[in-house]
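Now produce a polypeptide, keeping tokens residue-aligned:
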Amino acid sequence: MQALRGTFGTSLRWFLTGTLLFLTGCAFALVVAWPWWVGACLALTTLGLALGVLILVRFWRRRRGAPVAEEPESADTRAALEAKDADLRSVEHWFAAGVAALRRTQLKRLGNPLDALPWYLVLGPTGAGKSTALKEARLAAPIPEPTWQEESAAPWNWSFLERAVLLDLPGCYASATGSAAHRHKWHRLVALLARHRKKPVNGVLLMVGADHLWEATAEQLEEDALTVRQRIDELMGSGRVRIPVYLVVTRCDLIPGFGDLSRLLPPGRLGEPMGELVREPAAPNLVVAGLVEALQERLRSLRPVLLARAAADPARSAVFELPEAFGQLQLGLENFAGHCFGTSPYRETPLLRGIFFTASALEAAPGPDASAGQRRCGLFLHDLLGSLIPADQAGLRHTESWLRWRRGTWRLALGGTLALSLALSGLLTFSFVKNLEVLRSLGGLAAVSPSSGSTPGGAARLERFRQGIVEVEAQNRAWWLPRLGLTASLKVEEDLKGRYCREFRQTVLNPLDEQLQSTAEPALPSSSDADYGRRVMYLVRRANLVRQALLVRTPEQLARLPQPDFVPLQGPTSASGVQLATLYRYYIAWNRDRGAVGEELARLQGSVKRQLAARGGRLEWCLAYLEQDGGIPGVTLKEFWGGSREFSAAPTVAGPCTGQGRQAVAALLDELETTLPDRQEFARTRGAFLTWYQGKRWEAWYRFAAQFGQGSRRLAGRTEWQQVAARMATDQGPYFALVNRIEREVGTDGQAPDWLATVREFGRIRREAQTTAGVNRMAETGKLVLTTVRKSAGQQAGAERLEAEVATARAGRDYLEALAALAAASASRSESFRLLAQAYQEDPATGTSSLAGALRAAARLKKGLPQGGGDTLAATLVSGPLDYLLGYLRREGASQLQELWEEQVLAATQGLSGQQAAALLLGPDGAVWRFVKGPAAPFLTASLSGFRLRELTGASLPIDAALLRYLGKGVETRAAVAALAKPVSYPVGIRGLPTDSNRDAKVRPHATRLELLCSGSSQQLVNQNYPVARTFQWSPENCSDVTLQIEVGDLVLTRHYPGAQGLPDFLRDVQGGRRSFPAHEFPSEQQALKRLGVKTITVNYQITGSAPLLRQAVVLSGQAPRVIAQGW
């Protein structure tokens, strides 16, 4: 039942494993859009391969031999192993010596000398007489045995017999008292036997002394038997057969009567074996008991014969007692054999093949048969070792474990073969189906296949044809599974590619080349640099693509290279440049005619060489080409300043003059160098061009730096200005970022111009000044050097130079600190106004404000910089940040001043008449004069001609001229205010004339009314299109609103002029006596006027006496200017 359950469990595991593989394969096939049965084939393939690997592993393990059982190693055992490492090597050397001795014999005629004769191991406890028995058997073959050269004892003795090879092992290998080192040497010997011999060991001669069997205790015999059993188990574990064991009881001459028996037997019978082979497996104790009883019966039957032969021999009594003496061995022999050959469910049972009894040699008895005087020979050994055991090869039987291994291996092999056969059939079917799918997909290519010579639309048709081939190629490349010899789709793919190459050459490439040769090439030398470069690089890049294609590059790899620009050479192909470049790339990648491709490369190289020679080999056109077609962004003010405004003629650095442009120029020159065969000549041309190009880069950056201040024009509004001001003193500020960029782009170039030295020095000073410790160290070092220099005569120039460097560094530190303070103050408008007011009131040379300190530090820093680049560049780099911050502060100050004006001046006039406002603002203690003496005082100064603006660094606060004009008429205003104390009336004569409209109007105005309100009464002038006149009396104290009404049909159009200035406003509105009112100025009546066809209405008056009124109105208006400063 237990076996049945084990079989069922194994079957279930295999079934579940197969089901899992099947489902996994089907799922994978569905994911990659394959038929589900392909997944089943993959599962079968996986299963077959797994079984094959498992079979190989089983064979490998069997070939290496199963590892012998290792005993747990203690610390002492490991120490012993390390100490006996030399002994382990000696085992290998001694085994190799024996093998070498065998290989030197004639056994090689029989095949492998190691397998020609059977091998036996001789085991037994110490003192069993093994070596003596082998020696006295007198069976050694006449061949030289290996010689042991070491001082210690040999690991074993080689015994080469005529029909066998014996390895006589020391008794320590089979003794329970053997050390760990001996056990490891035994393991090494077992491993060597399994490795070097194809056949397993043919048997074991287990020798045990007769005296040991009756003298040793039962426990000692058990220990010895178990030790031997362990060694035999280890030996069987490395092979695949049950090792036959021949139990030989030696030293039987110690049994009473055994020696007398040998003297009484005929000499020929002494060489025969005494014992028997075990024919049928049986329990060891039964075998021993049966054998002992048989020998006893035999001896008892021989008693009369032996006693008759030795009637006069005094040994009769001993021979008579020999059967009973043999019986004394039975108990010990059963004990030993039972433990050594007993069955166990945990391990294989050794094969007890036979039990034999031998004795050491005795002195030959004197008599007529004595042939050699005193001779010694072993008893019952010669035939045992010489013929019986070597001939007993039928005793080799496979172990149960090996039989199970063989059955399992055959089952695995059968299952793997079946699985692989089914998988192979399925994969062959799938490969055939895939080939059919690819061939069927070619049907769509027939419709787009280009016809030879059809130029119109040929490129478009070729593109569709190419896409079809790419799809076929993708299907072939996506063939994960082996084709198994079905390559029809690959052959079709190659045929299609060849056809594509022929069609592209005839339809597209030949016409393009002819066009280039006939029209483009003759015009290239005289064309612009950009056009010239575009066409030259077209040839160069075509040549480079062809060169790479000769190295068997794929279209995808060629796509990473610079592509030729086919756009200027489209001609009749009616295709885009990108499409033509793609077609060409696939053409050279798929073209298998390497000779034609090589000819095309040579032709293109020749064309490039001719075009360059047409312009004398000069390469200046590279910059124009890269600037237009290189896609290299130039350096603009926006990168540094930001901002949202754009303006024309802004300074820039062209893309080819930037660092990225430098790399592009180098790459372009590399492309040219790769194309041209004469590298040395091009190297000279390249060097001259790079020298010229370096100068162009320096020039471009110098112009950009000199005009860099224009970047503030990009800033719109206070927010953008403030953002730039906040970072002006940092590396992110525009000017310092420019210095860093110049140093990074061109600052490392050798033999730089003088202006670049200014940039480098300023950058160095700024970096050192940003670290206070660095400045202090430099200053201290400078002082020490100055002290040393001044002590030496004639070193005044060096001392002055060091003093100048220290002073410049200190100026740089002071300047950066001042800039940082100004940038921090720029965040607050009130703080900016305070700093600005302080700076405008003091002398910049001696002032204590941050602005004055910054101006002085900037001046000292500019003085310390090299002036090779001119004062303009130094001013741009050094004064630029300060000028920007000063401009920002001026705008902030102007905005603050405007806010104070509105708060302190304009707000006080709300709801006041002109006379009241004039008195309030321009009176003796008016608000205007308080404002001039207060917030505006730092920025204004009085003179005989009036007020003027103060300046700082040549610029004043952006105060509007209206304020100066307003302050300039203060005396006249005061006089007018004084005159207001007396009542004044101004007469104005107004004569009404007919009111008119546009000519095509359906209805014309028929009445016009002008009304002036004064002291609760009104003065009116009604004009009904005939002349009428009236004199209006106007007084600024008593008069207010003026109303103008125009009647058109049923409509009344009204125009109001409110307030005390109503009449002056009306007079200014109808200046000259005539005023035309468009219809849209009367929005309520606009639609009605449109229906009447009225577009404009013109009123006409004759006005006299208005000049005094208007002049007095202006003076008494009291209207202060709304805007006095231009801020944001």
